[in-house]
Specification:
single chain; alpha+beta; six-stranded mixed β-sheet; 6 strands; 26% helix; globular; Cytidine_deaminase-like
Length: 137
């Protein structure tokens, strides 16, 4: 774990918070995510909650970004509805985000203590899927 931090992208937090306030309704959509592309664009999305394990907002934003031609994400944040603030990614999202974007920074923490950390810092002793494929170099 590197404990490396970066300046916090407050514009990205506000983008996710805005979507959480205006688009999250009822039990199906309770989280919003915003990701900043390497070229500066911001992509947003909401989760699709379902008792079978519907996708989290972070995974939906990955698909939404690809649908918009964005394949390189620099930073991501998730914000809960009902003013719950920044919410860290679950274990599944941490793994997917690490595999898709190994250089990604994730905004975590609460209130005045939010910070950006490398995705690898959220998964000590990481398992990188690509490293274990038969065709891996």
């Amino acid at each position: 774990m590197t404990s490396q931090t970066h300046p916090v992208d407050h514009e990205l937090i506000e983008a996710a918070a805005h979507v959480a306030r205006t688009r999250c309704r009822g039990d199906n959509h309770t989280m919003a995510a915003a990701a900043r592309a390497r070229d500066g664009r911001i992509v947003t999305a909401v989760n699709a909650y379902h008792f079978t394990g519907g996708p989290c907002a972070e995974l939906v934003v990955v698909g939404a970004a690809a649908a918009q031609g964005v394949y390189e994400l620099a930073t991501i944040v998730a914000v809960g509805d009902r003013e719950r603030g920044v919410v860290p990614p679950c274990g599944r999202c941490r793994q997917v985000l690490l595999d898709y974007f190994p250089g990604l920074r994730v905004i975590v923490g609460a209130g005045d203590h939010v910070r950006e950390v490398p995705i690898a810092d959220l998964l000590p002793e990481t398992y990188v899927w690509a490293d274990h494929q038969l065709d891996a170099g």
